[in-house]
Amino acid sequence: MATSGGKLLRRPGEPRRTNFLELFFDLVFVVALAQLSHGLIQDLTWRGTFKTLVLLLAVFWIWSFTAWTTDLYDTQRPAIQLLVTATMLGTMLMVVALPGAFGERGLVFAGAYVAIHVGGQLFILVLALWGHELQRRSIRVLFWFGVSAVPWLAGALVPGTARVILWTLAVATDYTGGILRNPTPGMGRSPTSEYPILAEHLAERYRQLFIIALGELILVTTVTLSGSGFTAGRTTAFVVAFGGTALFWRIYIYRAGELLPGAIGAARDPDRLARSALVTHLIMLAGIVATAVGDELVIARPLGHTQPAWVAVILGGPALFLAGRVGFGYAVFARVSWDRPISVLVLAALTPPLLFVPPILVATAAIAVLAGDSVADAARARGRPQKPPSPPS
Q1: Contact 237, 52 (CB under 8 A)
Q2: Is residue 234's pLDDT more than 90?
């Protein structure tokens, strides 16, 4: 088969590290996560939380799909640079529309989302893969994005609960297609061996996403303290919030975060492991968004009555992060560190009594659990040789 478009694919022996174009692209997601956490704090209810989750899934899917695109294609090519830059512009429009996505800006948000995915796949199909054996892969992806475009755009045209339902269907369609490798009538699903992934590059993109999320925590806490003014309580809450950020980094990177490239490279099915790691990073990302909400609430009002919804995000954010970290550790080592599920249970058990203490004490309790998890992790590995990655078979 002709390979006229194959020149845009990465070649064997080319640099596998992330380049400056991808780091530039990541900048918009710091603002996106900050917008999501700010939107959640404005509507800290079950309905508001669910709507924030739908928006987070949409934004995360753009980031993840772009990461897999730059893993497959040569980012030194002007055509791919144009594609990534255009995707960044579309994402910025979505970020601007985020606060009103379920209001008057729904069509901007959904329109930009559909244009990024459908337009991007058409661009790849015509310029990058036309006549190449991988064009069937792009057609499958385009088919699924075409299907999800219907509820995305239809939801943007109706208000209220109908939009929530249609957009939930749309984002579920996108993720189902990705997880099942885009099964398409008459074409089947994409084989996992269709094109090998670059373990070092993709793992580095995941780790950079996590750093972006921590950057959002730092942005929220510093802006909140700056706007609230220095008092003893607020400054203490700020220090506690920074401690949580540092512990998130320590718990993430220790062993599993460091060894992710080797785990993907050593896996019998690298594609499946890379997708599993993507899901666990999404869970950890959701935990960090919730934690950012909790940090903002605690810094703004460290003393006084703690509302139940506040306790939910202050403790639920770290719990979600730890739950995602459990899955991440299993993807790298094929085992579960039981101190992490125990830490999640401790956070759940602390919820009822912490309803009666000031917010600063709730945040301090969450940090204590994270610190205990980190210490247990270090103690378990003390004096033992570093284990190589051993992903599930």
Answers
A1: no
A2: yes
